[in-house]
Specification:
Layout: H1 2-17, H2 30-42, H3 53-65, H4 70-96, H5 99-110, H6 113-119, H7 125-142, H8 147-165, H9 172-185, H10 200-217, H11 220-223, H12 231-244, E1 266-273, E2 294-300, H13 304-321, H14 325-338, H15 354-370, H16 376-401, E3 404-405, H17 407-412
Antiparallel strand pairs: 1-2, 2-3
Amino acid sequence: MPLGLLLLWLFALATRFWGLTRFPTLVFDEVYFARFGRNYLAGVPFFDAHPPLGKYLIALSIWLGGGFHPWGYRCLNALMGSLIPVAVAVLAYLLTRRSRVALLSGCFVALDGLFLVESRYALINVPLVLFGVVGQILWLWGLRYQGSARSLWLIAAGIAFGACVAVKWSGLGFLLGVGFFWLLQQRLPLPAEWKTPYQWWQMCLLLPLVTFVVYTLLWLPHRQFHPHQSLLDLHRQMFDFHRSVASTAHPYCSPWWSWPLLLRPMSYFFQRVRTLSEPVPVIGPPLPMADTQWVYAVYALFNPPLLWLGTLATLTLFPLGLTALAGRFVLLNYAANLLPWALVSRCVFIYHYLPAALYSFITLALVWEASHDWGVWARWARIAVVGVIVGSFLYWLPLYLGLPLTPHGFFRRMWLRSWI
């Protein structure tokens, strides 16, 4: 297991750092988040529609990376992104005690396209997921203890959850997921290495209090730039902003129910050139497609077969999953990170599915492991599943890394009309 985790991390590290500075320009929401990080370092006040921690981390990345350039504002996010597959593997191991399920879960995340793309730019969904998963690992680990030791692990989990919510409010889904699991576990047996469930005051008082305190404290540096605004005023402005965003405010808006089907991925970067020697980005008007020889594109696209198989596995496990501890945990967390989006009326995007998607990947690993009892034919099905996922990762890799493609090669990878 330790060697497997090391190899998994090295693979994730290599894919996230290779060619990290390929596009010397601000890509997608880097135009906001990278500049916000620079503003913190320069002491310039600004309005942001999200809590501040994600931009603090980008500011730290700029400082560690030696300045406001692609390596500077991207390197820390790439490092955090390389840790997510390892964290998911640890989470799966705590749930199942099976190294094969754990490593397969981590490999699925490492072979996913959207987790890779989000890790390679100065965006904030990666720390959201990393802190959320770490919080759940600490929460599960605390079940091994009693007394004050258990409370200390719960406090550590609350710190991670507070950091998660301080990146985006949607990080509450990770906290909601463990809350649902705790409620359901009250009358169900626990594994031998776990003690009794958390007590009500630990889950209803201690954990929320620690999460809230950490969330509030993380606003203090931001408020130094806005001394005349209360924390309540800042939150009112943020809430009013999100409420004012129309459901059709962006061409890549996609309803929550479409995410498990991968109906509307997003273009983060697109550039047409005549030759591979041209500098990118090209200054000037877009090149007509008739004169285009090469295309550079970065797409916020999950690994399609992996996502669809994960959705199918979730639907398959749902009728039976609540009878097993790991199944209960992943299905409840999948629901906690997806279904609340049905209540959101503003424009939402495919990257909001990242937290729920990782549980569908763990679910796929659980179904893959369970298929060992299904007969000889299932062995070939397991081999085919892994082969298809690896093959599709390599096939769509140019769209994840922004490698040059011919126009024909680009459109050949657009399997659905809604992807364009």
